[in-house]
Amino acid sequence: MLIYLCRRIAAVLPVVLIVGVLVFLMLRLTPGDPAAVIAGNSATSEDIAQIRTQLGLDKPIATQFAIWAKRMATGDFGESFFYKKSVASLILDRLEPTISLAVLTILIATLISTPLGTLAAYLQGSWFDRIVMGFSVLGFSLPVFVIGYLLIYLFSVTLGWFPVQGYQRLSDGFAGFLYRLILPSLTLSIVYVALLARMTRTSVLEVLNEDYVRTARAKGLSEFRVVVRHALRNAAVPIVTVIGISLALLISGVVVTESVFNIPGLGRLTVDAVLARDYPTVQAVVLLFSLTYVFINLAIDLAYVALDPRIRY
């Protein structure tokens, strides 16, 4: 088992290096000059050249990458071209809303989709199974911003149960924090409930026909124990994989939801930084997203060891 863990951890290092190179080159090779954006429309070519020198953009790309990589290794993300603040402080300010939204969304989606998918597999071909599969198709088909506006109209405008937009930090009170986060989390969770319910149903269906499930029934175990303890537990590896990937995607892909509900998270920060050609901010945020994805996948691999003892060997 130790060899398995070491091999998985060692595989992360080259991935992180490749991601860092790609993130750096992606911005440098795309059209646009941040110095021109900062200088404004009335700036002269001398003004733009001076700003480029101040920002270090006049140096060769290899030199720029070496300076950036050295700063990244020491945890120094530099200063934002656009916001004139340290990138680390910008990210820390926006980190709580994004992580809170992602975690609450995946929690709601998991708690709803796991029993739905399991019951749909157990009642294969029934009206309940058809309803769950129909909801899955509908959840995949509707864009997130459409779901968001529909829920706003229903729960905020018509019923008045939730605020239309806004975010309250956890330090200002847990009740208000949760109250303002429920509606955007429900919006995002609909898509992931559809995905996870479908995956759970497929995985449990494959396991229900295995010999050890028939043996458990023959031993006189209740259907609940057969389905939950034997079928669902053995089908957990692909389900956990999708849950982990969904969490990583949520952390890096909540731009639309944050815009609809006016949540000051990392998604909106990324969009604003890209439009302003703010290299340090974009590089740091995209690298953070990439590392989050890599380490969540690593955590999923390590979780396999606990879920399936065969992997230990």
Structure, described:
The protein contains 14 helices and no strands. The protein has helices at residues 2-29, 34-39, 45-55, 61-73, 87-122, 127-141, 144-158, 174-208, 211-218, 223-234, 236-252, 255-260, 266-275, 279-307. The mean pLDDT is 78. It is 77% helix and 0% strand. The protein folds into 2 domains: 32-76, no CATH class; 91-312, MetI-like (MetI-like fold, Orthogonal Bundle), CATH 1.10.3720. The N and C termini lie close together (6 Å). The chain is mainly alpha-helical.
Summarize the structure.
The protein is mostly helical and 313 residues long.
Key features of this structure:
mainly alpha, 313 residues, globular, MetI-like fold, 14 helices, 77% helix
Please name the CATH architecture of the largest domain. Answer: Orthogonal Bundle
Rg over CA atoms, rounded to whole Å, is 24 Å
Tell me the strand percentage band.
under 5%
* Overall domain count: 2
Mean pLDDT: 78
Shape: globular
Order of helices and strands: HHHHHHHHHHHHHH
